[in-house]
Amino acid sequence: MESSVTDILTLKNDKNTWYPASIPSLEHHLSFLISKNDFFDEKEAHPIQKNISYSLQYVEFLNRVLSDISLSSVLVTQNIKSFVVHGAAVLEAIFNFLVVSKGHGKELTWKNVNTHLSPEYSLNNVKYQNETNIKFKLEKPIKSQMTFDQLAKKIESKKLLGNSFTSYSKIKPIRQLRNKIHIHDAAHIADTDWNNFNHSEFQLVSNVLFQVLTSDIFYGSNQFDKFAYLDTANKPIKQDK
């Protein structure tokens, strides 16, 4: 299916065609980590592998746009934001699979079935209301979704990317950047995309993605070269004045 569109991914006045890494090659690489195991059955692992592959192909496309196309400063900023958000989503998905597969996932043993609120009452001229949650205990614990922050802490504390991985401290800033997708939630007057997404943020996500995707967790893969573009984040981005 992909070959049918390769001829249209070209720059104007450029006869050379280009296409990002194929989905099969990305899936092959990811399969060295993301596959059926004691914690994920095939119905769970397969779509995770597929979705990460789709996002990785798009991340490479966004990287190429920044590298090869002259953009206005605003479009550079928005392209970097998309790169950061999708790159962070890839990291979060990989981290979640890794944490759960290593037996460090969060489990839910009680399920909430109802919530009761008491009538309002006052103490020392302050109004209060009590909330009571009604729960039942599950016969078998089920996996509970962890936040990016919780996953990042597990990854770092358990050194799940290996002792040779040198960017554990860079994961938290990426999680904070990913939350900036909510454009209505500004903390201060300078909390804008223009100030939050620049070349340094692009480098941060690119370098961490490269280190994760070429780390020991994918040992045995022969597709590491597919991520070489992520190790060149320091090359200048074309930008119109």
Structural overview:
By secondary structure, this protein is of the alpha+beta class. The protein folds into two domains: 22-105 and 147-232, no CATH class; 106-145, no CATH class. It has helices at residues 23-30, 42-68, 73-101, 148-157, 171-178, 193-196, 199-213, and strands at 106-117, 121-123, 126-128, 131-144. The strands form two sheets. The protein has a two-stranded antiparallel sheet. It has a two-stranded antiparallel sheet with strand order 2-3. The radius of gyration is 22 Å and the shape is globular. It starts with 22 loop residues before the first helix and ends in a 28-residue tail after the last helix.
Give the secondary structure arrangement, pairings included.
Elements: H1 23-30, H2 42-68, H3 73-101, E1 106-117, E2 121-123, E3 126-128, E4 131-144, H4 148-157, H5 171-178, H6 193-196, H7 199-213
Antiparallel strand pairs: 1-4, 2-3
Order of strands side by side in the largest beta sheet? 1-4
Shape assignment: globular
Total domains: 2
Largest sheet: 2 strands, antiparallel
Rg of Cα set: 22 Å
Question: What's the SSE pattern?
Answer: HHHEEEEHHHH
β-sheet strand percentage: 5-15%
